[in-house]
């Protein structure tokens, strides 16, 4: 099972949502994202938020289309996206995709990037991705990882996201590395590209943010 969560980020930053309508996909809307899903002909199974970004008419429309709507007070400890993500993790899917998580307020975007770390810290096998019209982001723990060439997102960047990354090795890339120490301030691994159909990257310590981007 895959759970797709759409938040209320700018619609201009969204990919084509209907292209993520595989079998066994569950859609979840967050705040304004619920109305956006319905506008694209997608009926979410769950809706979360304080709904301060929709008007009363839109909220009533949401109630008529979504079976389970969880409304929270605007003054709360967890942002709406985190509430939806917590529910999604409890369902134990193999993957969670976050849409509408970029392009708006920087504090919301950085908080959403931090949410990518939850499965790694909790030692869960669930992969969480942030996807917009130009980028795909995810975080990985130490080990050896394969990555396939994608002509639509040919640029690949690696950023330490929690302390330094140790012994980073890149094979099959235009700019290879061998057992490099990557401090948290480094931009060494920005905008690399695969030269093989499939490459590998490995490291022994730290957490690495992987970003795949279009031109």
What is the mean predicted local confidence, pLDDT? 93
| Domain tally | 2
Strand segment tally: 13
Main sheet strand line-up: 4-3-2-1-5-6-7-13-9
Strand content: 25-35%
List SSEs in N-to-C order.
EEHEHEHEHHEEEEEEEE
Considering the protein shown, what is the CATH homologous superfamily of the largest domain? Answer: Thiamin pyrophosphokinase, catalytic domain
Flag low-confidence runs.
none
First-last Cα distance: 31 Å
- CATH topology value of the largest domain: Rossmann fold
What is the count of DSSP helices, taking H or I runs of 4+ residues?
5
Helix-strand category: alpha/beta
Protein name: Thiamine diphosphokinase
Domain Thiamin pyrophosphokinase thiamin-binding: 143-209
Enzyme class: transferase
GO molecular function: ATP binding; kinase activity; thiamine binding; thiamine diphosphokinase activity
């Amino acid at each position: 099972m895959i759970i797709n969560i759409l938040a209320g980020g700018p619609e201009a930053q969204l990919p084509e949502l209907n292209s993520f309508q595989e079998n066994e996909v569950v859609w979840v809307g967050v705040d304004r994202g619920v109305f956006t899903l319905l506008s694209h002909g997608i009926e979410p199974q769950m809706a979360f938020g304080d709904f301060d970004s929709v008007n009363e008419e839109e909220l009533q429309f949401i109630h008529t289309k979504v079976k389970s709507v969880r409304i929270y007070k605007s003054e709360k400890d967890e942002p709406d996206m985190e509430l939806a993500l917590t529910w999604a993790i409890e369902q134990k899917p193999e993957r969670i995709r976050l849409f509408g998580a970029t392009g708006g307020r920087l504090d919301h975007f950085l908080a959403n990037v931090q949410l990518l770390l939850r499965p790694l810290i909790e030692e869960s096998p669930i992969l969480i991705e942030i996807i917009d019209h130009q980028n795909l982001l995810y975080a990985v723990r130490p080990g050896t990882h394969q990555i396939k060439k994608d002509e639509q997102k040919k640029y690949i960047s690696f950023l330490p996201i929690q302390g330094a990354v140790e012994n980073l090795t890149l094979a099959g890339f235009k700019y290879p590395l061998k057992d490099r120490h990557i401090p948290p301030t480094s931009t060494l691994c920005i905008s690399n590209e695969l030269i093989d159909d499939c490459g590998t990257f490995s490291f022994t310590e730290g957490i690495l943010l992987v970003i795949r981007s279009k031109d």
